[in-house]
Amino acid sequence: MAARPAAKGVPIALHETVPWRGFTSEDPPDYAEILRCTHCGMCLNQCPTFRVLGWEPDSPRGRIYLMRAVAEGRLEINPDFREHMEVCLACRACQTACPASVAFGRLVEAARWQVRQTLPMSLGERIARWVVFAGLLARPALLRLLTWGLWAYHTTGLRRLARRSGILGRLPAPLRTMEGMLPERIPFRTMPTGRVYPAVGERRGRVALLAGCVMRTLLAPIQEATIRVLTRQGFEVVVPAGQGCCGALHAHAGEREMARALARRNLAVFMREEVDAILVNAAGCGVAMKEYGEWLGRDPRWAAAARAFSTRVRDVTEFLDAAGLRPLPRRLAGKAVYQDPCHLAHGQGVRAQPRRLLQAVGLTVIDLPDGDVCCGSAGIYNVTHPEIAAALLAEKVQAVQRLAPQRVVTANAGCLLQLAMGLRQAGLALPVQHVVEVLDEAGA
Length: 444
What we know:
3 domains, five-stranded mixed sheet
């Protein structure tokens, strides 16, 4: 078969085959990046799905081999290819382990985008994707209405009745997981945008804060704690009006065009603000925002702004650690287990900073064995693949039981909800907190 002509910006394989033969010409996985994999296997034990399934195609090395086979025309994108790409948690632990620093996260997101373009979807899947990605996540008003409904479900006693009756056990596993992940307290008041919060005492700077999706609704108390900590630390905080979802979940699910549209929306809003940094307190959102420069790198209108934006994004723990905490009004005591969010540790290289902040308030920080292995949340992975997610969560819960801490701390919304669900189901009455909630408790 004659080779296709190379598309603009797509590299030619080193052995003179066209790298996107089985992919479309629009944003295929980077063939040069695929070729950088040396097949050494260092990633295998770090891959959660390989540890659970023990199947080579469900390891980073295996997935890269499948991508290469499609790129070289030896394999078509088919349902099996799709399943091997989608069963990946996109946790990026393989990137930390890889001696060649292969950017696997970008490869698997591009592969899912290719699947989205190539394979047909059932009517049910199309509806579900529209509801989640074009509806709830893209429209804060809809997510706010859903939160009010969940607040009513909790405050009227329906949740307690449903859990005691056993009716939840009859639901499909994804719905049981979604119900089980609901926080113990569901706020009625969601986080407002278009507000500026003045610094307390001598002003040290001005920052902008991403409101987010789940963070501004179900987990609005964490946003409130974040603002209190930042203002007490001397930073004026602006929460710009008009911002929306960061697009991380869309990119993970292969909805690349939606992700880019959301990125452009946020760029237009945040780049109007004169701030020292753009802060985020959800690790998956942080990775996405730090990669806006890559998402929009070929967009002549937005490329420069996206690169400038990404250089200003900081996780809130990263920012506070670099700024240094003011003297604390009180110190906390006890042992705290810290769970590394995948997209903070592997995606952003932020590991020591949250631990230093927890130690600064007086806590003894204990690391979980394999603490940087995914807990199974991974965006909506625990809903789409509940069995694998449950197996990963069980390992975390057992490790926490053995260590017997006074609290569990993390720095990402999904991890927090996942761990709280697992501990509650195991009968462990342990608080699960975000780092900023601990800092707020200490009056930081």
